[in-house]
């Protein structure tokens, strides 16, 4: 009898409750809940309703110097057909 009681208690602890373990969505949350789109903030809001952008939080793209480089960074959507040579097939 006690074994059945212990197994029932174990089952109740292992059972998932869908309502409490689901990811919170705006449909099931309070009215003022805003989920967002997983973006990092680039600044902060001021007390008077303004927004201050912090330059250290902006993305910094490092672009290499391409002077004298043979290839171009653009890829055409309509490529020109190139005749196959015998060297490429070997």
UniProtKB/TrEMBL annotation:
Cellular component, GO, one term: mitochondrial large ribosomal subunit
Protein keywords: Mitochondrion, Ribonucleoprotein, Ribosomal protein, Transit peptide
GO molecular function, one term: structural constituent of ribosome
UniProt key word Disulfide bond: no
Compartmental location: Mitochondrion
Keyword Ribosomal protein: yes
Chief localisation class: mitochondrion
Top-rank taxon, per record: Eukaryota
Record-stated family: Belongs to the mitochondrion-specific ribosomal protein mL41 family.
Protein name: 39S ribosomal protein L41-A, mitochondrial
Species, as recorded: Brassica campestris (Field mustard)
């Amino acid at each position: 009898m006690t074994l059945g009681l212990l197994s029932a208690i174990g089952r109740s602890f292992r059972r998932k409750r869908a309502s409490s373990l689901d990811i919170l969505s705006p449909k099931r949350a309070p009215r003022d809940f805003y989920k967002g789109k997983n973006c990092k903030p680039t600044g902060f809001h001021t007390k008077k309703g303004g927004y201050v952008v912090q330059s250290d939080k902006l993305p910094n793209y490092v672009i290499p110097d391409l002077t004298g480089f043979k290839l171009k960074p653009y890829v055409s959507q309509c490529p020109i057909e190139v005749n196959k040579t015998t060297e490429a097939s070997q």
